[in-house]
Amino acid sequence: MAHDESAQGLLKESSTRRSRSSDRGDNAAFDSDSDLDATDYIDREAARPTRRSPTASFEPNTKGKKRSCSCLFTTLGRRSKCCIGVLAGMGILWVLLTATGVFVYRKAQEEPPYGQSPPWYPTPKGGIAASWADSYAKASKMVSKMTLAEKVNVTTGTGWEMGLAVGTNAPAIHVGFPQLQLQDGPLGIRFADNITAFPAGITVGATWNRQLMYARGKAHAIEARQKGINVLLGPCVGPLGRMPAGGRNWEGFGADPYLQGIAGAETVKGIQSEGVMATIKHFVANEQEHFRQPWEWGLPHAISSNIDDRTLHELYAWPFGDAVKAGVASVMCSYNQVNNSYACGNSKLLNGILKDELGFQGFVMSDWLAQHSGVGTALAGLDMTMPGDGLGWADGKSLWGPELSRAVLNGSVPLERLNDMVTRIVAAWYQLGQDDEKKFPRKQPNFSSWTDEEKGVMSPGSPTEQEQVVVNQFVNVQANHSVIAREVAAEGTVLLKNEDLLPISRQGLSDERLRARRDAVERATGKRSEGKFKVGIFGEDAGPGNGPNACKDRGCNQGTLGSGWGSGAVEFPYLVSPVEALRKQFDKSKVELSEFLDNKASFGKGDGSLNDLELCIVFANADAGEGFTKWADVSGDRPDLRLQNNGDDLIVKVASSCGGGTGDVVVVIHAVGPVLVEDWIDTPNVKALLFANLPGQESGNALAEILFGDTNPSGHLPFTIGRTLEDYGAGGKVLYLPNGVVPQQDFKEGLYIDYRHFDKYNIEPRFEFGFGLSYTTFKFDNIVVIPQRRKTQYPLRRPNPAAEPPSYSTDIPSKEEAIFPPEIRRLEKYVYPYLDSTDDIEVGQYPYPDGYDQQPPLSEAGGDEGGNPDLWSNYVVVNVDVINDGPVAGAAVPQLYLQYPETESETDFPVRVLRGFDKVHLKPGEKKTVKFNLTRRDLSYWDVVAQNWVMVTEGPYEFSVGLSSRDLSISGTW
Ligand code: BGC
């Protein structure tokens, strides 16, 4: 079949492909910024403008450039020598990098390690799914009345900081299509006041609770709607977490595609139940921050994540499939390249996988400045460019906007393609019921992303003078969402170690426990503590620090850690620190509290100042975030998996000094991902470890619930905690130094990330994926496997489309439609769809990308929203009884792992993969039956030759159920 060569992997479309006259393609990228150099990657904080720094927002990363220019003009003395040296050094580095890049690039062309991926053109049109048919019919009526300029308006952002939200397109006024307001992010409404700072995605993943996933999404969307937002830029299911130190893993739900898929889909459903469009992001393989986009790190191109076809399907694209099946309105393509083609211009990814195979009916939006060519991206399947600027922040030189008008007029972008882009966006708007003006009044957001003042201008990104108007109405949309935030934070707290210590009570210990404890200490030391129970709270992470919003975009680690940093963070309305909650809740008549809220560990150095303490609760953390800013040595991605701010040292010292070594220690960790605990986990008086992830605004309250046993911990790890970073394998390492002008990151480990890697190589983790303790115990019984359908190798044939995409006239519109209307008052740098003159536009025969004329066969895995419907049919049901056989009520997280049958074929399978989970609340002694539905997709692997999901028909599948990926006490076969 035509795809055979692609079978081994995805394509490698030339990233240097140029298209038509109107295409400000990759050449332009070099031209516009060519004065920057590779050394800029250390200075990249200046590269991305952030809130309330308008000057920065107009200046791309010129720091490096300015420095070298001033060197050139310094002619005398040591400084000039130094400058010449620096320049020479930079020159040599540049030559070396270029040479390496050329070498790597050539090599890649000679023998592409991931196969030659075919181009996939033309873009499948939206409108084939029954579930969207009404919306497409309505959209078609509206789009057919739009002018060319209106259509372009709908597809193109108006530019960075040109509206009140982080992204705005422009309206199609005459037909009644409003300007859409797009806002980050996955854990709350970014840059807004009076909102809820929910726990981050990773904490949600750790709850393993579908209802909470949905509820958080819904509450988030209520707030978005009430703030005037149409499109939420979340949830995030990529990065998946290939590298445990990856900077943005915390925005997603955990290092497993199944968990990400369910959590992503539930969040999408929750958000969209309120009529707000969800955006699933970042498609795909944006696994690290280093080199994620051009120039941010000084290199002219973004990193290429090189992935084989099977791994792409079974790991990285998998959760996007769930989101599409859940009806997601929008998909954000990512910054990075995939197999050396930018994700937002990669026709195999967007046209082939997303729109054909997964049957995505909504629209593809670029990440902010992730578009690198005009015509190329349009043909490759991009539908909306954000924020609308071209290759630099706030430069106003869009790759679409007027250039898209030109491209349609000269025929280099087929009108059909533009019509499909617009129809997809308008259909999504109808699909979510946003035409209902009562729910979505056609107004601007009631807050501004760019100022906290009541008044401001509507387009602060433009230097044109503008009228001051009310931009912040300070509308409180929090309702009672703190309850959900707190529930997620509490259920997302994972108890990793507990040696008969937790829960404690607000009175400290019961009289009986306290007496026993004091007797034991007396026996050991000859000293007896009297009076109140003496508790110490340690660590900067327990306290408020300088307040939760002390650093822009939360880009520093100080005070207690409630979220990571970047576009995924919000302005905290408040953050209940652990110490605040504990101070309030401990019974002062029984407990004496001492606080040591810094990490200097300057106590107890031989002076015995902690000798009296009987319980020490010590807090430490590890932070990371989006690559546009850095803190200490954390440049987005963490440099290692250690606790930060001297955390390990603090814990070790507290453990040795607490009660002179006899005190009990509880360690609490807030972190963006796995941290190493080896320095202290086996210390005998470290009796308990709570891994609280990133809890959001209700941090302290949620923690207190767990410590005091109001809520029985039921969080489970959404990733593996290894003993060293090396344990995660070579694929687990961030690429910190560029290995070429286009850094190449080969995902050679294939399917073997996180627990799949630990299982395959028999590496004993410290705490395995899925692990989490409770104050009670559970057991399993009575597994029953009930087949629902017969095993067959392939899914049923791809169905014919249930609906016909709309069709429109293909006559190229009149040039007049794109001419600047004289009455418009133009704002400088604002992106309009208009041209000053169309005189030079000639309709012509422009070269289309290679392979444009050879429509590849439609995927047998496709055919409807979410792909071939048979992939979603249940083929087998597994029922298991779960019993609470411990002393108190609690919630179990039964997890089902599948083991593929052993085959004679060469297909390699992971030892086990997660394919089901649930959360079950049980009173002591209570039993409930849990039901796991396994779909065809759950039971299949991606066959690169057949280019389809294939079920193994010989030999039994094994289903093991238990409380973690390594605690599987019961199993059945099919
Ligand atoms: C991030 C996206 C975000 C966008 C808008 C980008 O830098 O990667 O996740 O939605 O900015 O703020």
From TrEMBL:
Region Disordered, annotated ranges: 1-66, 440-463, 794-814, 845-866
A Pfam short name: Glyco_hydro_3_C
Main location: membrane
Listed SMART domains: Fn3_like
PROSITE patterns given in the database record: GLYCOSYL_HYDROL_F3 (PS00775)
Class in the EC hierarchy, top level: hydrolase
Keyword DNA repair in annotation: no
Transmembrane parts of this sequence: 82-105
E.C. code: 3.2.1.21
Compositional bias segments (type: Basic and acidic residues): 14-26
Pathways per UniProt: Glycan metabolism; cellulose degradation
Top-rank lineage group of the source organism: Eukaryota
Membrane topology: Single-pass type II membrane protein
Gene3D superfamilies recorded: Glycoside hydrolase family 3 C-terminal domain, Glycoside hydrolase, family 3, N-terminal domain, Immunoglobulins
Compositionally biased spans, kind Low complexity: 845-857
Subcellular location(s) per record: Cell membrane
Sequence similarity: Belongs to the glycosyl hydrolase 3 family.
Cited PANTHER family: BETA-GLUCOSIDASE (PTHR42715), BETA-GLUCOSIDASE E-RELATED (PTHR42715:SF20)
Chain's role: Beta-glucosidases are one of a number of cellulolytic enzymes involved in the degradation of cellulosic biomass. Catalyzes the last step releasing glucose from the inhibitory cellobiose.
Name of this protein: beta-glucosidase
Species this chain originates from: Podospora pseudocomata
Phylogenetic classification of the source organism: Eukaryota, Fungi, Dikarya, Ascomycota, Pezizomycotina
